[in-house]
Each structure stands twice: as C-alpha cells, then as structure tokens.
Amino acid sequence: MPGRAERDPAGTDSGFAFERRDAPRQQSLVTRLISGTAPSRERLRSFRVLGAARLLMGTILLVWFAINALGGGSRVGIVVSALYVVVVLAQWMLSLRTRRGFAWQVLTAVLADLLVFGLLQWLAGVAARELLVSYTLPVLAAGVWGTLRLTLATASAVSLLLLSQALAGLGGWGSGHDLELFAAGFVGAAYFAMGLLAWQLSQRLVRQEQRARSSEMRASRQLAINRHVLLAHPDGVLVLDARLRVEAANPAAAALLGMPGTSDELAAGSWNLEHPALAVLGQALRGPSDALHGVAPLQIESVDGLRLRVRVQPLRHLPGGPAYVVFMQDLREISNQIQQDKLAALGRLVAALAHEIRNPLGAITHANELASEPGLSEAQRVRMTKLIAQNADRLNRIVEDVLDLGRSGVRAPLTLQPMRMLRELAAEFDSDPPGRVRIDAEDPQATMEFDPQQLRRVLVNLLGNAQRFASHDPEAIRISLRGGPRVREIAVANDGPLVAPALRTQIFEPFFTTDSRGTGLGLYICQELCTRYAARLFYRVLRQPQPHGEFVIGVIATPGAG
Questions:
Q1: Contact assessment for residue 416 and residue 499, using Cβ atoms and an 8 Å cutoff
Q2: Distance, CA of 518 to CA of 391 (rounded, Å)
Q3: For the chain, what is the mean pLDDT?
Q4: What 3-state DSSP class applies to 536?
Q5: Domain range 230-334, CATH architecture
Q6: Closest of 253, 145, 247, 260 to residue 201, by C-alpha
Q7: Which residues face 227 on adjacent strands?
Q8: If you count DSSP H runs as helices and E runs as strands, how many of each does the chain have, helices first?
Q9: In the chain, which segments carry CATH 1.10.287.130?
C-alpha cells in the first residue's frame, strides 16, 4: 500500500514517508508536531475535504484582491493569492493521489496558510478585518491532524500575527489603539479555544475509530472462526431464526437431511421447515415434546432413511430476536463409535488379563515340574504344593474379579445414612493396635443414594489399602464424612507415603498394581461401582495439617432408580 514503505522503529507508519533515516533529529522534531500514525481512510478523506476548503478560500481571496485592485489597491495581493491557489491545488492533487508523506502534507499546509494569510492580511491594510476568518483553516488543521504542541504553536502564531499587525498601526495609532490590541488579543484567545476544542474532538474521534476498527477486526475474526467451525464440524448443524427459517447449515446437515445446494445457498434464508427435506424435522420440533426448549434430544428418520439424533440449543437473548441451534448426529456413527470403544476396552482387558494370568500359570507349571522330580524331600514337596495352591488361588481371584465386572449390575439405590456402616467398618479395621482409625463427620445424620452392599464393597477396598500403607500410630487412618444433610464426600486417608504423581493417572486402570499379591482390579471395580451410582472415585493430595493423600467418593447427583 502506498505510504507504508517507511516505518518507525516500533513498526508503525509515522506518516513521514519522505524523511531520511539518517536524520533522527528532524524525524523526532516533526513527529512531535504531527500524530505519528498512518492516516486512516476517514482521516485522509477529511484532509482532502480541508484541501477543497483551502482551495475555495484561496479563490475567494484572489477574487477579493482583484476587486480591491480595481479600486486602486495593491496588485501584489493578486499575485500572492494566485500563487497560493496554485500551491493548494498541487497539495490537494497530491493528497488525492497518495497518502505517502501525510504528516509532511499536513505540516506544509499549516505553514503555508500561516505565511500566506499573514502576508495577505498585511497587504490588505485597513480592510484586513475581513480576513481574520481565514486563520480558522490552519488552526483547525493543526487541531485535527496535529499534536497538542502543533495546535498551541499554530494558535500562538496566529495571536502574534494579530498583535504585531495591531502594534504596527494596522488599524491606526489614534484613540482606537487600545481597542485594536484588545480585539487582537480577544481573537487570538478565541483561536486558542477553537484549536484546543478541535484537538480534543480529534483525539476522541481517533480513539473511537481505533475501538471501532478493533471491534470490526474481532467481529470479522469471530465470523471467520465460526464459519470454519461450522463447515468443519462432523455433526450436522442448523441455525434457525424465530420463525424457524434456516439461517445457516453446514455440509454435514445438508448431507444428513438430503438438502441440495451449497452452504451459501442454504444460508440465504429461503429454506424453512416446510420443505420436504426438512418436514420430518419440522414436525418433531413443533410436536408436543417441547424440543425447541432443549428439554431432551429427539430421534427422527430423514427422507433417506437415516436415523438421526437431534438436540436443540435455544439462544434467546440475541440481537434481532431469538434463534435455535440444531445439532444432528447419525445414530449409525454413534453406534459404531460405541462398538469400537467397547472392542478397544475389551482388547485392553483381555491383553491385561492374559498378562496377569501368565505369571501365576508359569509359577504353577514350574512348581509342578519340580514336584515331579525324583529325590525331592517331603518339605520341598509341601513347599511346591503350597506354591501351586497360592498361585491357583490368585488365578481364582483374578477370574472372580473379572466376573464381578459383569455380575455387578446397577441395583436400585436406597437412601441410607452411611455413618452406621462407617462405624462398623472402623471397628473391623481398628486393630493392631486399637485406636488406629478415626472418624470425622460434619453431619452424622447425612444421607446419600447408593446400594449398601456396593458401598460397603468400595469402602472395604479403600480401607484395606489404607491399612496396608498406613503407619501403626494412633489415628493413622482417617475416615471423613463431609456434607449435610446430603453427603457430599466420603474420604479415606492415611499417613502413609503419597502416590507418586506419575502413577496417579494409572491407579484406576485395570490390572495396575504395585503389590505383587494384588490383581490390580480393586480400584478399577470401585470406580466402576461409583460411576453407576452417580458418584466418582478419585485420589486427592492435601497439604494440611501435613501432606497426605486420600481416596474420595464424591457424590455428583442423586441417581435414578435402575
């Protein structure tokens, strides 16, 4: 773009495209007089309007001096006015052709106006009062496009010109001398006020223009992002206005509903839910299911026989009225994804199960081979038999835990007070030595929705882990019941070592264990049970009164029956 070739060190066009880089003092001086940013379209357009006004003013002055010359006045004013018209015309044409050196254009326009209008007023003599209004142009130019320094300097120059002409006897040295000085000072003060007002208004307009440009850029960027997301979204997305006309539709929605046309054609506003391709969707949204309020997703069948899952998100507080965003998913893809996830999970479970079975099975095979060797003592045979029994028991526990994953269906939850169960479990685990388990309850009468047997199973597993890693100090194991009248959390903490940060994301995975005697399914099964009853099991590190870890059963919401 013209006028952007030269940039200041900050990377912003200073507007002085013609200055030399080896003249930093000159650049600094001029930058202090003119605003140091490249002109916007609005500022450049207003400067061109000023150029037209200067050209008109020069023409008026030329005609005025020509008429004055016919009455015997000086012809020098005609020459100066004519030269001024030529210079202003050249400057105006330059501003129309390019914005390069915009700051220089403003500065030369202000200086030329001060010089020419001062000279013409001097040449006009007694009739100079009619020319006082001409100083408005340089003062306004300095206030609108210059800095505060240039504005004050221009108003000062105008005041000095007026005072010097008054002191030189432009109005005569008679009894009106004091009046002439007062008038010159008054007009100079008025120009100061006008320049400051113009500068203040200019600064406000510049700030508003910058905010508007920034808002426009953000809006354009957001529109581009929204359009990209809409086009690239794998699910079908429809945007409906208050009258259920299609405002936008992505290609996925067009493919699911069998709507012909490009995305731009679909967003033209000519589609509505009366169209045959959208009739099924229109009937579902206008039906008694209250789907337009986003209460529950719907299932419909498109004209091509596809089963679709439809969910509506109402947008009520929008400029121009409410709108509705309709998300559509192909149920075949959802089913395929669920099936793939199940197969992937089953593959991981089978691989982990095979790995876990291999170790005890290898131990059994090896012990059986050793037990069949001749010359083995009775103690060695007993030892091999015991080793075989231990590994067989481990295999049985692995199989039982895997079977429990399938047998532990979701039973109807009961409203229970877990405090009684916590006391029973504390008494069961409070041994070797006594006083090792402590219970803290914010509300002993707090209730929760859970199956009692499943909750007991989860707590037994957590307390067993705590008992294995805790010290033998008093109150080394702490059970906390938080919340009331509804249970918010049940936490089991111990003073043992913290779980390493690298392992905290793996402890709930199946067959992950740090105990050679464990199966690695305990925490995984506990987490599955909590999920089935609208709770979640997680590990948390607390820093007070000293760093310690706790396993927490966090109640998310009251689950429904079944």
A1: no
A2: 12
A3: 77
A4: strand
A5: 2-Layer Sandwich (3.30)
A6: 145
A7: none
A8: 15, 12
A9: 338-407
Count the Cβ atoms, other than its own, within 10 Å of residue 75. 12
Long-range contacts of 271-280 (CB under 8 A, 24+ apart): 271/245, 271/246, 272/243, 272/244, 272/245, 272/246, 273/240, 273/244, 273/245, 276/303, 277/302, 277/303, 278/246
Per the listing, tokens 């089978």 go with 350
- Mean pLDDT lowest for which of 19-33, 255-269, 374-388, 435-449? 19-33
DSSP 72: T
How far is residue 20's CA from residue 348's CA, in Å, rounded to a whole number? Answer: 71
Domain 338-407 = CATH 1.10.287.130: yes
Give yes or no for a contact between 433 and 475, defined as CB atoms under 8 angstroms apart: no
CATH topology of domain 414-555: Heat Shock Protein 90 (3.30.565)
The one-letter amino acid at 19: E
pTM above 0.70, yes or no: no
Reference 13, options 94, 95, 100, 106; nearest CA is: 100
In the chain, ranges of CATH 3.30.565.10 domains:
414-555
246-250: long-range contacts at Cβ-Cβ below 8 A with a sequence spacing of 24 or more? 246/271, 246/272, 246/278, 247/323
138, two tokens: 């340089």
* Mode of pairing for the β-strands spanning 448-450 and 414-416: antiparallel
Alpha-carbon distance 108 to 102, whole Å? 10
CA-CA distance, 177 to 189, in Å (whole number)?
19
Closest CA to 499 of 554, 525, 529, 538: 538
Helix 148-167 to helix 177-232 angle (10° resolution) is: 160
Residue 351 CA to residue 507 CA, distance in Å, equals 17
Instruction: Please say whether the beta carbons of 254 and 262 come within 8 A.
Output: no
Separation of alpha carbons 110 and 114, rounded Å: 6
The DSSP output letter for 374 is T
Q: Is 252 left (phi over 0), alpha (psi -120 to 50) or beta?
A: alpha
- 373: tokens are 């060797």
Buried b (16+ CB within 10 A) or exposed e, 100-109: bbbbbbbbeb
Is the distance from CB of 184 to CB of 165 less than 8 angstroms? yes
Structure tokens at 277: 């391709």
How much of the chain exceeds pLDDT 70, in percent?
Answer: 78
| Per-residue tokens: 438 | 């402590």
Contact predicate 522/433, CB 8 Å: no
Question: Chain centroid to CA 533: how far?
Answer: 35
Alpha-carbon span 276 to 12, nearest angstrom = 56
On the CB side of 387, CA atoms within 13 Å amount to: 19
- From 53-57, 184-188, 215-219, 422-426, the region with the lowest mean pLDDT: 184-188
Domain with CATH 3.30.450.20 in the chain: 230-334
Q: Look up residue 81 and give its amino acid.
A: S
Which DSSP category does 316 fall into? Answer: -
CA distances from 347 to 340, 342, 343, 350, 529 (A): 10, 8, 6, 5, 21
CA angle 355, 360, 366 (to 5 degrees): 120
